[in-house]
Amino acid sequence: MNFPSKIVENAVNHLSSLPGIGKKTALRLVLHLLKRNKQQVVKFGEAFIELIEKINYCEKCYTISDTNTCEVCNDSKRDHLTICVVEDIRVMMAIENTSQYKGLYHVLGGLISPLDGIGPNDLKISELTQRIETENIQEVIFALSTTMEGDTTNYYLFKVLEKLNVKISSIARGIAIGDEIEYADEITLGAAISSRTPYSE
Amino acid sequence: MNFPSKIVENAVNHLSSLPGIGKKTALRLVLHLLKRNKQQVVKFGEAFIELIEKINYCEKCYTISDTNTCEVCNDSKRDHLTICVVEDIRVMMAIENTSQYKGLYHVLGGLISPLDGIGPNDLKISELTQRIETENIQEVIFALSTTMEGDTTNYYLFKVLEKLNVKISSIARGIAIGDEIEYADEITLGAAISSRTPYSE
Questions:
Q1: To the nearest whole angstrom, how far is the Cα of B179 from the nearest Cα of chain A?
Q2: What is the mean pLDDT of each run of 10 residues along chain B (201 residues)?
Q3: Which of A51, B111, B165, B177 makes an SS bond possible with B149, Cβ 3.0 to 4.6 Å?
Q4: Which CATH number fits the domain A6-54, given the four candidates 1.10.8.420, 1.20.1730.10, 3.40.50.970, 3.40.50.1240?
Q5: What's the whole-model pTM score?
Q6: CATH class in words for B71-198
Q7: What value of ipTM does the predicted structure carry?
Q8: Do A102 and A44 meet the contact criterion of CB atoms below 8 Å apart?
Q9: Which residues on chain A are in Cβ contact (under 8 Å) with B33?
Q10: Gap between the terminal Cα atoms of chain B
Q11: Which residue from B52, B97, B87, B62 is spatially nearest to B190, judged by alpha carbons?
């Protein structure tokens, strides 16, 4: 595409760098932005700068949080002896929406994916074992997507955690294989948490 | 959706304000951005601030241009007696890609759309009549999408321009009714420009 303006081209290139957004869609979105008033677009841009400059992660469970420890970790009414291991904040938000789980979380920050160059050391796995040992955790629930990467991570985590004195379970595979957890309906997801099964190879 | 972080929620709300992007997609894109390094995301945000602060329109044809008058208007080899009327820069870029047109453009900045509150006075129509009169324009080609809004605008423009001493044509309707011009393939679009037909009601 030959752009008549470097400024537009730059904005289009940034938008189309996002997954699922092509150049034509990006140009459509940029022209849409240009029809707004200046202050709105400035705020649009500033939202991303603020995002990356002020983003903060809970120092216990590594979820995104505006405070040092997140609301869930701070909540004394929750079960502080159970940890649910999730890929990212989206899965945590989906499980919270079911109101079926009252324990804590641990956000890995991704899944093991050799194709994308993501190994166990890129995830918060050593932090998880440390939490299990220091916080006297009784049970760890794996709530990872039933994809190749999720299964790989499940298996790796099981191998690491089976040496520790902790009960390990995985949310019930009532969710169709290949589906992503965040898109499951709340009833299926809630039932899958209630009927979790002991982890077996 | 209950977001654990106001900063993330703000970024998600801004992204999902764009047409075709829902909250879940926006959250996925925001988490994608958070995996990049800080400098990249700052540049991402700055691209939109620069876009709205430095955007400039050609003072002759109202296309987006980094200079006061655009490359097309400045090109002495082009036919300065013919104007092609387009909705926005996307259509202009699509026509330029066909290499079938050597005249000038006039960018309306939208189409007449009462449902969206866009009337003739919101478009660069009086600027078009002024150009036709002062620049001694011989022919005006309408290259507007074959949608309801495009047809309405075609008709309105014809009513305004028929009083002037200028030949009026419309690109051939080889393009399927209901399709948007920017997505037409170059051959169809090029042929449609070559076989333009005199405008008739």
A1: 15
A2: 87 94 93 92 95 92 91 92 93 89 93 90 92 92 88 92 89 71 79 75 66
A3: B111
A4: 1.10.8.420
A5: 0.78
A6: alpha beta
A7: 0.80
A8: no
A9: 18, 48, 51-52
A10: 51
A11: B97
